[in-house]
Specification:
This protein has 903 residues and is α+β, with helices and mostly antiparallel strands. Helix content is 51%, strand content 8%. A hairpin with a 6-residue loop joins strand 10 and strand 11.
């Protein structure tokens, strides 16, 4: 059945009453000219721009439900008209749903009176008449020193003009640079205003909590609500191929992977998507650029390990030394694991040396300083961006109360805010305390759940290790010898098999628990009655990251600091609940830590790519076929139909993006000593992420409502804490997980020739076969021994007394020497990095001196504007019948703006 379409205009087609007809300008764009998509961006009169679209269905549900939803829509539209929103409705049939089924698009346009009223309430910073001739402070200091090849093409995305600005006020409109009412408020500002208005409109007259468009979207009264994209994202076909709108220009310079080498147009991203997304991509770009020196140093350290491996004495002793390689080692698990010779760990020892070599401590120190410098420079850049984004002076009290809070709190519980002197919802301290206790209890329970999952992974490691050795037995039960071929594939590579499968299992558990807890954290945050959206997101951020930190890094911390140490690594010792102990494999625990990090790091990136790119692409193709299928053949589709077919912008979409990047930051800072290639993987991943995110938001998703932001919010504090914590973790990994300190102690106090000759034997302790606890002695002797000729003693990695001593298997003096050296290294490492960070902070201030000068100059220019206006008002004669204008107070906070001028 052909889809039918009719346009129903809410009104008589005339211009809004608040604006004279001759004030309407023909549709146009200051930067871009529209070609072929104009009717999709404006009302039928070609003058009123579509600021928002609401979508709903009729004739597909029961009559009772249809009537209930229709009543809400009628009330909402009636209230919107009173507020100053024009409505024009387009209706089309729904194929396959019957003749009465219709898909309706309510297109909304904000009148001038609504715009200036809400701009005054929201204190949007708008340009004054005094124009600043010099350019704004450059937001990206690095790009200035790069060739033009890496910069954005200014002919496609030219810089915006700059003006002195201040918070908008209806009573002082004469001071603002209102050249054209149609272009004074940019599209993103118009979207913010109309969304703020709809979020506070009551749609159920008898119920004070029936407020806000979000509730109507949640209960399917409206299927969707979204602002329109500026037009098609692809440039028109032709000789020039020049983008015709800001979306196409961004796609040309930013949203394609072929432009991965270019800096991002942060200013224009902010103009199109809002300040919050602008800060996110600015942080991503800065973080990616800062990774380059870390990648270089990490590669040099890894190359050093590869070159010096053949000359490393401990590796040579394990692999080739005749007196060392044949050392009989104790089984690494109970009963099913055989005795083995030290030379069996030759490959694992070489792999460990690539990570644990003399360059490791230098790399860890460098990365600790790198994280400190990164945060200092990011704070500096964030200050510059907040100045250029016009949010430098924004305060908490300027942000509006969340509409959800106004709906939750009854009007009789409102009180006057002592700062703004306006009535706001009031929540008692006791109510907040009880909710905080509930949140803390739930978070604690979820953390215990993570610990339980980690314990399950430990049991899995132990059981799989035992199963590998048990399955390697020969079918001949009498000989009980290991089959050589099976040993090559199972026993020899057990470290990698167990490490990889355990890490993969851990990754699956992490993703499932993160998904569950995100919903729980949102529900808890909703119950906290937070005043502003920023407070809401900060609370959700902290609550969610506490859990995510434990969930993501718990298993990594276990492998790095507890595996092989708790319980004590005596052969045959038992763990928690008398379970077999989870011991380090033949090559030690550091190689297992590296495997864990690689799987978690790369696996999470792969999962995110699938969930954020492949699945949305398939979903959009199916939605486009369903919604636009019949109309694509008729070539009658419109912009609102195209955008409706796109994927809905995910709620709190940037929240999960930021969370993933901060988790990645934790991987490359806290555990970089065990994963030198982490910065390289992060660099490649981020280059892909930036372009894929740009492509995703420009092509696959509907345009989000632009949001205000002063920075990256609570994520900044989390980054600081992660960077501080990374100093401690790297110090402990070098001191307690690697062999750096034992080798240093051996060279300083035990070596006979000031070399590492004899180090391998020195680092081992002896154990008697007769001292195995009952039920833990090996039943598989190994390929070199028969059941009747088992070795009397074996060796294990630890500093303990031998079986012949009066107090066997106690910690010896060597252990305490090494332990003292490890503690000293931790203290020296930590204090050195912290002192260097303080020195760097002193020499690199958070606010550049040139920016301070610009602040003072712009405040001076703004004051001059007010002085001139006041002087002109006093000199202008006032007729007796005209009221004297109110005094114009000087604005205490004024700064340089970058107004958006695209249509």
């Amino acid at each position: 059945m052909k889809s039918q379409k009719r346009d129903v205009e809410a009104g008589d087609g005339k211009a809004p009453e608040s604006l004279p007809l001759n004030d309407f300008k023909p549709r146009k764009s200051i930067k871009y000219g529209f070609t072929g998509d104009e009717e999709s961006l404006f009302f039928r009169d070609g003058r009123r721009r579509i600021d928002f679209v609401l979508v709903y269905e009729t004739g597909t549900k029961t009559k009772a439900l249809e009537y209930k939803r229709a009543e809400k829509r009628v009330n909402l539209e009636r209230a919107m008209k009173k507020e100053g929103i024009d409505i024009e409705t387009s209706v089309q049939g729904i194929p396959g749903e019957g003749p009465e089924a219709q898909l309706c698009y309510a297109k909304l346009h904000a009148k001038w009176d609504l715009l200036i009223r809400y701009a005054d309430i929201m204190k949007l910073r708008m340009p004054l008449k005094k124009e600043v001739e010099e350019e704004a402070y450059p937001e990206d200091e690095i790009s200035r020193y790069c060739p033009p090849f890496f910069r954005v093409d200014k002919s496609v995305l030219p810089p915006s003009p700059h003006f002195v600005s201040t918070g908008f006020s209806k009573s002082k409109m004469a001071l603002f640079n209102i050249l054209d009412r149609d272009s004074f408020f940019s599209p993103s500002q118009r979207i913010r205003i109309i969304w703020e208005c709809m979020s506070r409109i009551q749609f159920v007259e008898s119920n004070p909590s029936g407020v806000g468009i979000q509730k109507l979207l949640a209960d399917d009264t409206y299927l969707a609500g979204f602002p329109l994209h500026d037009g098609p994202y692809e440039a028109p076909k032709g000789e020039t191929k020049k983008p015709t709108n800001l979306r196409a220009a961004l796609y040309d310079q930013w949203g394609q992977f072929s432009k991965f080498y270019k800096f991002q147009p942060i200013e224009h991203i902010k103009n199109y998507f809002g300040g919050k997304m602008g800060f996110y991509f600015a942080w991503m770009e800065f973080y990616t650029i800062m990774l380059i020196p870390a990648v270089i140093v990490g590669a040099v350290c890894l190359l050093y390990g590869m070159i010096t491996m053949k000359n490393d004495i401990p590796v040579q002793e394990v692999c080739t030394h005749p007196d060392v390689k044949d050392t009989i080692m104790c089984p690494i698990c109970d009963r099913r694991c055989p005795y083995w010779r030290l030379e069996d760990s030759c490959m694992q020892s070489k792999s460990t040396y690539l990570i644990d070599n003399p360059a490791t401590i230098f790399f860890a120190t460098f990365m600790a300083l790198w994280s400190a410098v990164f945060l200092i420079l990011w704070k500096r850049k964030q200050t510059i961006l907040s100045w250029n984004f016009d949010t430098y002076y924004a305060t908490e009290q300027e942000e509006q109360v969340r509409p959800e809070l106004e709906a939750q709190i009854k009007p009789d519980h409102w009180k006057v805010n002592p700062i703004t002197q306006m009535k706001e919802p009031y929540v008692s301290p006791w109510r907040r305390i009880l909710q905080a206790m509930l949140s803390g209890t739930v978070v604690f329970f979820m953390v215990l759940l993570v610990l339980a999952a980690t314990f399950g992974t430990i049991v899995y490691r132990t059981m799989v290790n035992v199963a590998i050795y048990a399955s390697s037995q020969s079918a001949d039960a009498e000989s009980a010898q290991l089959n050589d071929d099976e040993e090559k594939f199972a026993v020899k590579y057990s470290t990698y098999i167990v490490g990889f499968t355990a890490a993969l299992l851990n990754l699956i558990v992490i993703l499932i628990l993160n998904s569950i807890y995100y919903r729980i954290a949102k529900w808890l945050t909703e119950k906290e009655y937070l005043r502003t959206q920023s407070e809401y997101e900060d609370s959700l951020t902290i609550k969610y990251y506490i859990f995510e930190f434990v969930n993501t890094y718990c298993s990594v911390f276990y492998v790095a600091f507890f595996k092989g140490r708790v319980p004590p690594p005596l052969p045959g010792s038992r763990g928690v609940f008398h379970l077999p102990a989870d011991r380090c494999d033949k090559g030690g625990c550091l190689i297992e830590l590296t495997i864990q990090l690689v799987v978690l790091f790369l696996g999470s990136n792969l999962v995110n790519y699938v969930t954020e790119m492949i699945i949305p692409s398939i979903t959009r193709a199916l939605r486009t076929r369903k919604i636009l299928g019949p109309r694509l053949r008729d070539k009658r589709e419109h912009r609102w139909e195209h955008d409706h077919a796109a994927q809905p912008y995910p709620a709190m979409g940037l929240f999960l993006e930021n969370s993933r990047m901060v988790t990645q930051f934790g991987f490359i800072t806290m555990f970089v000593a065990a994963f030198p290639l982490a910065p390289a993987f992060a660099l490649i991943s981020n280059i892909l992420e930036i372009r894929l995110d740009g492509y995703k938001y420009l092509t696959l998703y509907r345009r989000p409502v632009p949001t205000w932001a002063k920075g990256i919010g609570a994520w900044g504090k989390i980054l600081e804490n992660v960077a501080r914590f990374s100093i401690i973790t790297n110090a402990f990994i070098i001191s307690f997980s690697s062999d750096f300190v034992p080798k240093l102690v051996y060279l300083a106090a035990y070596s006979m020739d000031s070399t590492l000759n004899g180090y391998t034997k020195w680092s081992l302790s002896e154990f008697s076969r007769l001292d195995f606890p009952f039920g833990t002695e090996p039943v598989i002797p190994g390929r070199d021994w028969s059941p009747d000729q088992l070795p009397e003693t074996c060796w294990y990695r630890e500093f303990r007394t031998g079986p012949a001593r009066p107090r066997p298997y106690n910690l010896n003096m060597t252990f305490w020497h090494v332990f003292a050296a490890r503690v000293i290294l931790v203290l020296v490492f930590e204090h050195f990095v912290m002192v260097m960070s303080k020195i760097i902070t002193f020499f690199v201030p958070g606010i550049p001196a040139t920016l301070k000068a610009k602040v003072l100059r712009e405040n001076f220019l703004a004051k001059e504007t007010f002085y001139e206006a006041e002087t002109s008002r006093l000199q202008t004669p006032t007729s007796p019948g005209t009221k004297r204008a109110q005094n114009l107070p000087m604005s205490p906070i004024i700064n340089l703006a970058r107004p958006e001028v695209y249509a």
